[in-house]
Specification:
Largest sheet: 5 strands, mixed
Radius of gyration: 22 Å
Number of strands: 26
Strand content: 25-35%
Shape: globular
Bound molecules: the ligand Nc1nc2c(c(=O)[nH]1)N[C@H]1C(S)=C(S)[C@@H](COP(=O)(O)O)O[C@H]1N2, molybdenum atom
Helix content: 10-25%
Length: 445
């Protein structure tokens, strides 16, 4: 059968048929369990305008960060983690100063005003962090990458960091963006209840990643021509949610994508990967949802049969009215735009401001950006600035506020495939892929 396995819709349809035919291996999760969880997520359709559903009522969508922000108080206190030299105390290792981050339990998002005046890349000190549990301490001297599975011709293979660094390297500019970035706007703009971390627009960053192509490693490991799935797994703690241990964070990639443009990165912006971003090695999957970018990579299973994990059956699917009962699998990120301004910030009246922002898409480069300062009544082109054609586009817009008062600023972009930003994003229970135009409130004083 010829299907394009870099298109996750095709891939998923095939995998689902195989799953239902009993041909797939879900690593200890029974089919009944997966289907039950899938159904629970699909059934948990809250009414518009109802206050947030506690995650306990929706175990399929459990997220420790959102469900219980008090669970990890250390992350909210930069002083508590900043000095952690030996054993990390909080879930995130780097300092999280409130002028750079909003912190939610084990997760932290970049404040967009912290990108003002920055260059093309998101500096590591302000790059968002999304941890299911906590940043592990990994000794690079004893770290090994293990490859194993039915898809390898000569059995398991192990690589040290030195082995990896000796292989030909490649450098990619790529965004990493959480699939739930913008999730809070389902509630604040659309009156809908969704579960998961209530990100604004700051769960995205662009960095220069250096490492070895996954295809190079797979070829040297002896990948068989009939291998179909590749399953990278992290070395962080197993993730327990809703009383169920789902094991280590892992998500299968179709072999075609794994061989095309996936990187095993050991550098971020010219430095060794910081602990919070996957030291010593993480996966980078250009254009795809953040969960594909497995941090603290420890093992890669290569299989001649289909693989599943909760991260592509139970999570990272679109559930809700208008979606299949088993949900729709996700791969690429959508189009978004953000102003490099504080949320509910103040601008001085009586003068012209140069507003800066960025737009991005998992489909490819941004072609056009427009701004509205009058509630969406009229739209005007923004001026692209800096580099063209990369994972995001910087832009600027000159605005002289007509009078003091409250305003909402809007930006919307169109990417190279023609995809744009709608006024409303269709609802899904887990609040993924919010691509609608965001109304950014400011006060002119
Ligand atoms: N091992 C491991 N990899 C992981 C995660 C994790 O919790 N553990 N989180 C994923 C998710 S959901 C996202 S959005 C990105 C976030 O990458 P960052 O923390 O470097 O910004 O990492 C992904 N890789
Ligand atoms: Mo994510």
């Amino acid at each position: 059968m010829s299907i394009d396995r870099t298109d996750e819709h095709e891939y998923d349809a095939l995998r689902m048929r195989q799953w239902l035919a009993g041909e797939a291996d879900a690593r200890g999760l029974s089919r009944r369990h997966l289907l039950r969880l899938g159904t629970a997520a699909a059934a948990a359709v809250p009414l518009a305008g109802v206050a947030a559903t506690p995650a306990a009522a929706n175990p399929a969508a459990g997220n420790p960060g959102a469900a219980n922000p008090a669970a990890a108080p250390a992350a909210a206190d930069p002083a508590a983690v900043a000095g952690a030299a030996a054993e990390p105390t909080g879930p995130i290792r780097k300092p999280l100063p409130p002028e750079l981050f909003y912190t939610y339990g084990t997760n932290a998002e970049t404040r967009w005003e912290a990108m003002a005046g920055q260059g093309y890349y998101t500096p590591a000190d302000r790059f968002f962090v999304r941890n299911h549990t906590r940043t592990p301490a990994i000794d690079p001297a004893t770290w090994r990458l293990q490859l194993f599975g039915s898809g390898l011709r000569h059995g398991p293979v192990e690589l040290s960091l030195q082995d990896l660094r000796r292989l030909p390297s490649d450098t990619y500019d790529a965004a990493i963006e959480c699939t739930g970035n913008g999730r809070s706007f389902f509630t604040s703009q659309q009156g809908q209840t969704v579960s998961g971390t209530a990100w604004k627009l700051g769960a995205v960053g662009v960095a220069r990643w250096r490492g070895v192509r996954l295809s190079t490693v797979l070829r040297r490991a002896g990948i068989r021509p009939d291998a179909v799935d590749v399953l990278p797994e992290g070395l962080d703690d197993e993730w327990v949610t809703g009383g169920v241990n789902l094991g280590r964070v892992r998500r299968p990639l179709p072999v075609a994508k794994a061989m095309r443009d996936v990187l095993l990165a050991y550098e971020m912006n010219g430095e060794p990967l910081p602990p919070d971003h996957g030291f010593p090695v993480r996966v980078v999957v250009p254009g795809w949802i953040g969960i594909a970018a497995i941090k603290w990579l420890g093992r890669i299973e290569v299989s001649t049969g289909p693989l599943f994990s909760p991260w592509n059956t139970q999570f990272y699917r679109l559930f809700g009215p208008g979606y299949p009962a088993d949900g729709e699998l996700l791969s690429r990120q959508v189009v978004k735009s953000a102003f490099e301004l504080p949320w509910q910030g103040t601008l001085t009246g009586g003068r012209t401001h140069v507003l800066h922002g960025r737009s991005w898409s998992g489909n490819g480069p941004i072609r056009r950006v427009e701004v509205s300062t009058d509630g969406g009544a009229s739209w005007h082109p923004a001026t692209p600035t800096g580099r063209r054609g990369g994972p995001w586009q910087q832009w600027s817009y000159r605005w002289r506020p007509p009078a003091p008062g409250a305003y909402t600023l809007r930006a919307r972009a169109v990417d190279a495939t023609g995809a744009g930003q709608p006024d409303v994003t269709p609802f899904n229970t887990l609040g993924y892929l919010f691509d609608a135009v965001v109304a950014h409130p400011v006060t002119v004083a």
